[in-house]
């Protein structure tokens, strides 16, 4: 029997959330579409997977049995996809690097020339991070390395080659009352509405909302942006403020946006990240060394 992995992923999220509404939102699906997927999986398996109740859905014994195997099946398939993509790109002498909107400006001709000297015949393909994927493509094997501003402890699943530690700053409309101050206190800033990145970004959304400094207090969301340009435009239009790497002060200067230092806000660790389970290749090592030799963070 062949099963679409999308159906298994949807099934797994419904089990975790315990209700279709929350699961649909997390999967960026409409509830009718998610319901259709679950029914399709039930039809293929010939079993009922959930009991519908007013409070949500309850897994049947059949669903509990399936749930015990789902993670291994999906992890195995994801690993196969990653290995396939990695083998293909290595055969093409291609390294794929993801970047944030604020980090691409750190890598230029000097970095590429240094990489080419270390890996003759190889090319680097740069791809902007996907805010709807918490791994930005590392988990699916779409990229080999990610250039990120990240918290000090990103999690045990990631390995890192850190380049520097830099401040995070506040970004706000130049007309905002707080823009009159040269230095802000994080306790005052956190009370403001924020421009957030999508919920699908997971811990990245929390990090750029200053979750660690909020001590459990929820953020006020003034707008949600789907890419870096939308984010900066929403801030400029006064829909909310935000935190960003210090480099944005220099790289995205505009008269309607103010950049201010913030006391009490933890810094970012700039570096190249990859999945710890991913074997390091000569091309990955060469790119890391090229960045260390050429990237200027001040």
UniProtKB/TrEMBL annotation:
Residue ranges of domain HTH lysR-type in the record: 3-60
Name this protein carries in UniProt: DNA-binding transcriptional LysR family regulator
One GO MF term attached to the UniProt entry: DNA binding
Family: Belongs to the LysR transcriptional regulatory family.
InterPro entries: LysR_HTH_N (IPR000847), LysR_subst-bd (IPR005119), WH-like_DNA-bd_sf (IPR036388), WH_DNA-bd_sf (IPR036390)
Keywords associated with the record: DNA-binding, Transcription, Transcription regulation
Pfam families from the UniProt entry: HTH_1, LysR_substrate
Top-level lineage group: Bacteria
Organism: Kitasatospora gansuensis
Entry GO terms, CC: protein-DNA complex
């Amino acid at each position: 029997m062949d099963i679409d992995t999308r159906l298994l992923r949807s099934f797994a999220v419904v089990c975790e959330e315990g209700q279709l509404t929350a699961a649909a939102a997390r999967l960026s699906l409409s509830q009718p579409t998610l319901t259709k997927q679950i029914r399709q999986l039930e039809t293929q398996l010939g079993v009922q997977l959930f009991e519908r109740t007013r409070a949500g859905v309850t897994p049947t014994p059949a669903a509990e049995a399936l749930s015990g195997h789902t993670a291994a099946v999906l992890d195995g398939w994801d690993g196969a996809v990653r290995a396939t993509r990695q083998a293909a790109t290595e055969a093409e002498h291609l390294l794929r690097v993801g970047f944030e909107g604020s980090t691409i400006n750190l890598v230029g001709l000097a970095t590429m020339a240094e990489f080419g000297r270390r890996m003759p015949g190889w090319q680097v393909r740069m791809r902007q991070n996907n805010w709807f994927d918490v791994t930005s493509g590392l988990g699916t094997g779409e990229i080999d390395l990610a250039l990120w501003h990240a918290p000090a402890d990103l999690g045990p699943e990631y390995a890192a080659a850190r380049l520097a530690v830099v401040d995070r700053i506040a970004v706000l409309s130049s007309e905002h009352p707080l823009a009159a101050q040269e230095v802000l206190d994080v306790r005052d800033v956190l009370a403001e509405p924020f421009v957030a990145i999508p919920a699908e970004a997971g811990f990245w959304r929390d990090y750029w909302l200053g979750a660690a400094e909020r001590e459990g207090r929820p953020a006020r969301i003034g707008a949600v942006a789907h890419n870096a340009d939308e984010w900066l435009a929403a801030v400029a239009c006064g829909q909310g403020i935000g935190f960003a790497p210090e480099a944005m002060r220099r790289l995205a200067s505009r008269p309607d946006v103010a950049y201010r230092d913030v006391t009490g806000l933890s810094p970012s660790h700039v570096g190249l990240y990859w999945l710890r389970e991913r074997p390091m290749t000569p091309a990955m090592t060469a790119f890391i060394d090229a960045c260390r030799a050429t990237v200027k963070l001040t």
